[in-house]
Fold this protein.
Amino acid sequence: MERIGVVLGRREATPLEFWVGVEGEGLLRLDDLVVVEAFHPKVGQVRYFGMVDHVAKVHEGEAYDTDTFLAVEGRIPVSLAYVAHVSVTRILPEEFLPPDPGSPVRLAQGEELELALYYEAMRNQRGSTKLPAGLLKNGEVAYLNLEFLNGVKGGHVNISGISGVAAKTSYATFLLKSLLESGVLEDAHQAKVLLFNVKGEDLFFLDKPNARLTEEARRAYERLGLPATPFQSVAFLAPPKKDGYVPDLETRLEGVRAYHWDLVQFCQRGLLPFLFADRGFMTNLGFLVQHLTEKLRRLAEGQKGPQLLVEDWPGEDLPAEVSFESLGKVRLKSFADLVRYLEYKLLGPEAGEGEGDRAWTARQAKGTLEAFLRRLRSSVENVAHLVRGDRPGNPPDPLKGEQVHVVDLAKLSPQAQMFVVGSLLKDLFERKERGQYRGRVFIVLDELNKYAPREEESPIKDVLLDIAERGRSLGVILIGAQQTASEVERRVVGNAAIRVVGRLDAAEAERPEYRYLPASFRQRALILPQGAVILHQPEIPVPLLVRFPFPAWATKREEVREDNSAEALRRELLG
Amino acid sequence: MWRLLALRPSWPSPEAEGPAPSDPEGFRPLEAPWEARRAEALPWPEPLYFVDGREREEALLAQGERLALLGCVAAGVVAHQGGRMALLSYAVRRVGVGLSEPLWVGELLYEPVEAQGADYASLREGLSRAREALEGEVAAGLSGGLLVVDGPVRLLRPGPLLGYIKTHWARYLPGPEEALLYALRPGERTPAFRVRRKGMELASWYLRLPLPPEGLRPPQAGLLRVETPLSGPFSELADLSLSLFPLLASHPMKDPRAPQNLVPVGALERELARRMGSPEVVGRLLAKHLGGG
C-alpha cells in the first residue's frame, strides 16, 4: 500500500498515540485505520495499528485569523497542513517503543485491518466467533466477538440513545437478526428471544417484509452475510382489552394472541410482589407481601384453575357473583374477588369490629394491613384484565413455540407493565436456573431506567440485577436499552460487556457512564445520524462507529409489503 | 582552527538598506505635468512573481587576526497565478564570509565566500552580496510575467521588472517637487522621474499606500518608491503599480513594517525563516562544535 502520510515530529509520537501529517492528495478521515512500521536494531520490526480519532487542517504560517482572507484572495502564500491524530489499538510485537517521526503511514486493509481490530483473535476451538455487528465506514464488516455476547467470556448488551433517531430498538433487532441467522451462534436454532414492546406497535411486524427496503440496504445485508428477510418464527402477544378478550392492538389484528394469568397461576407462581413496585424489603409492608405470597402459594397448591377455590369465606360477606362449587368451597372468579377475599382474611368480616385471620395477618399492625389493602385495591383497575379467573391462564412462554416472542406493554399502565415484565423475567430466570431449557435466551428490554432505576428498590430491579450478574452463566442474556444510562442501576449497565451508544443528549454524553468513550466519540455521539451507532467491546480498545442497514422487516403498518400472491390469497380465504 | 568569537553577532539583524547617494540636483522628470496621478484598476499580469531574500548572521569566528562571518542566506519566489499565491521555489545556503575553504560544523556546511575587506563591516557586506546573488539565482529561472523584487533594481531580465523601496534614506526630489509627496493620497502616485545608479538608468515614482486609519499619521507615512529600468514601458508599469501595491499593502495591526512590507513578501520571509532552521538550534550546534576553542 502506498503511504498517505508520515508520523509528525513536531508533536510527540508515543507508542499509544501519535500524529500523522497527510501528504498531497492523501485522505484520512475519522475512524480510518492505519499502520505504521518502526524498526529498532535491538527489537527489530514493530507494527503499530491505530484508529484516526481527530483530523484537522490549518494554514501554517498565518499569524492572524484574518490572514485567511488574504490567502483566499490570493495575496499571500500559505501552506495547508492536514494532520490526524491516531490512537494505537495494537502493537505487534508488543514492544512499546515510540514510532520514528517521518515513518510512512499506510491505510490498514485486508489482513492488517483484521489485526488492527483483533478480528483474528475472535475464534474458539470450534471456529470463528466473529458476529457481524454492522459496517465500518470503509464498507468492511465490523464484528463483535460473540463470546462476549453469548456468555462465554461476557454477556449482555447495553444500548443508550435518545429516542426517535432509530437507534436502540432498530439496532437491538438488527443484532438479534445477526445472532439468529448469521450462523455464528452455533445453537442459534435453540436460542429464544423475548422482546418487550414498550412504545407504539413497532415490533409487531417483525415477520413482514419491509416494502421500503432499498437495493442498497439489500447489498449491505449481503455484505454482512445476513439474509434480507424478516424474522421467520415470531409469536405476538398483547394484553387483552379491559372488556372482552381481544388483543389490545390497533395496527395488527391477525396472528396476535392475548395473554393473561389466571388466579391460580398468580398464586402458585408468587406474582403478588410484582404489584408492589415501591416495596422495601426491610419494611413491615415488604414482610407482609412476602408472607401473603407464601400463603397464596399454599392456598393454590394442587388447584387447577382458572378460578381459585377457598373454603373459609362465610356466605354473608360474599359478593353476589361468587358461586359455590359442589363441595361447598367458594369460587373466586376475578382478581377483584381475590382482593376482597384477602381483605376478609386480613381485617375480618366487614360487619363488626372483627379481627383478621391470625395466620394471614402475620401479627402486623392494623395500619400496615390497611396500607397493603389500599395499594392492592388500587391495582385492581390496572391488572384485573391480566389476572383473571374466567378462563385458563395463557401467560407468554418465551421458551416454548416460536423462536421470538414479542410481548406488548405499550398500552398497559406503569403498574401493569412492571407486573408483566417482573413476572415473565422471574419465571424465565427460575426455569433457566432449574435447567428446564438448554438453549440461550435473549431478553430485549427498553426503558431500563424504569425497571432498574439507579435510586429506588423494586422486585423487578432485583430480577434484572440477578440476570445481569448471574444470567450470563445460565445463558440468559439481557439486551437492555435506555435513553440515559446515568439513570440506570450501575450494576446492570456495568455488567454489559457490549456497549452501544446511539445519538446522545449533550448533557448526558458528559456523564461518567460514558467515560469509556474517547472525547471525540462523545462529541460525535451528539451528531450521530440515523442508522449509525458507536460500538464498544472489551477486546478492542477503541470504539467503532458502525452503520447498520435499514430493517428488512416492517416497523409499522405502512411498511408492510403486502403479499398478493395466489398462494397467500388462498391461505387467507381457506384458512 | 577557528575560534568562536560571538554567536549571532548582530542578532536580531537590523533591517537596513543603508544611506544611498542622493542627488536631487540630477532630477529629471519623465512625465509632465508634475501632479498627483491616478489610474484605472488594471488586472494583474500573470504570472506575477515576488522575489525576496533573507540573511542571518550566525557566528563570528576568529583565527589569529583573521575574521570570518558564518551566516545563512535564503531567497525565494512566490507566484500569483490563477487566483492563488503560492511559494514557487526557494534556495537556502550557508556561507562563511572570509573563509578560504568549506567548513563543516556538525552537519552544517558553510561554503566560502570572499570578502572585500577583513573587518566586520566588510564581512557583513559580503553576506549581503551572497544574499543578493542568491536572489539573482532564483529570479533567473523565472520566465514571462512581471517580477517584483524587494529593494532597488539590481539585475535585469527580459520581461518587465519592478523594484520597491520601503525606507527612504535618499532624497530624489528637489524642494518644490518634493511637496507633492505630502499631498499624495492613498492610491495616487507622482509622475515618473529618472534615477541613475551604478551605471543603471531607471525610472522611478512614489506612490502612497493605504494606511488605516487614515489621517492619524504624518504625511510621509505609507510612501513607497518604485523603480523599473528606464528602457521598459515604465509609464504603463507605473499605472499598473497603483493596482498592485495598494492591494498588497500590509495592515499596521499585523505588521510593524506596514504598509510597505507587502503581504506576500512578509509571508515569503516567514517561510524562508522556517527553512533557514531554528536560530537556537543552529546556535547550539555552533557552540557545541566551535565553542571553547
